[in-house]
Amino acid sequence: MANSKYEYVKSFEVVDKLLPNTWIVVRIDGRNFHRFSAENEFEKPNDVQALNLMNSCAVAMLEEFPDIIFSYGVSDEYSFVFKRTSQFYERRSSKILSITVSFFTANYVMKWKDFFPQKDMRLVPSFDGRVVCYPSNENLRHYWAWRQVDCHINNQYNTCFWMLVLNKGKTKKEAQDILKGTQTQDKNELLFQQFGMNYSNLPAIFRKGSCVFKNKVEEIVKHTESGDPVKRLRKKVVVSHCDVIEDRFWKDHPWILDE
Ligand code: ATP
Ligand code: ATP
Ligand code: MG
Ligand code: MG
Prior knowledge:
Layout: E1 23-30, H1 33-39, H2 48-64, E2 68-74, E3 77-82, H3 93-115, E4 127-134, H4 137-167, H5 172-179, H6 184-195, H7 204-208, E5 210-223, E6 229-240, H8 247-252, H9 255-258
């Protein structure tokens, strides 16, 4: 490599290596999706195809980058965790962040037509991103719990809000005032009393958000001469809408945190 007197500018680059032996979480969030969703006429409060598109992009992420072991998404956000021992881009923060954001965004644009065949995309989507390292499994578990609780709170509020606006003809201001200061139980009551709606019967994708991870699935690899199937366990990227707050999920999928 030829040297030059200009080479010293390289030394201005700062080292941004992430702490070793920590879980690397990258969270991305759609920029100005309030407007993006309105321009593209997403259904309120939840456009299921928009969520499926986000999930499909997350699946592509896990298939492309083996160090990502789990991800969780809701609304216009997605969080990806890289395994503790990951040496992806030598754990350089800006590399990991920019690769995640650009690969996800490129997929979002590329896959749009698969999920919205009737709609041309209005506005150019973009996502912001951040990287956070978590030292313990407990911290990481609490991270997912934090996002899923947030999903619940927002979804319950939004469900009430849009029911009042779309089905009761309330203005957005009136709906806001009605919901001001209400607790979880009040909102469940409101949905039941006024709309005969049982919140817990709403689709899990809305209430719980989406998990994308590698699951062990049994696969038939061949058949014996007598016609019996020969099965093998294989890891396959799956989407599921499970509870990540309780122990159950982590006990059933120990390989995620144990690597
Ligand atoms: P990475 O592989 O992580 O992207 P990088 O961005 O530092 O590393 P490259 O993208 O391969 O490196 O190259 C960028 C440019 O910087 C190239 O033109 C290369 O010649 C130059 N370069 C890379 N490392 C040095 C160095 N230590 N000193 C001077 N120039 C360098
Ligand atoms: P910022 O750039 O600060 O993130 P934002 O407008 O994206 O601003 P968020 O807090 O990220 O604000 O909220 C995302 C908004 O996108 C939601 O409030 C909702 O209006 C809309 N949205 C995202 N996904 C969906 C969806 N699947 N269905 C309907 N609306 C959605
Ligand atoms: Mg956003
Ligand atoms: Mg958001």
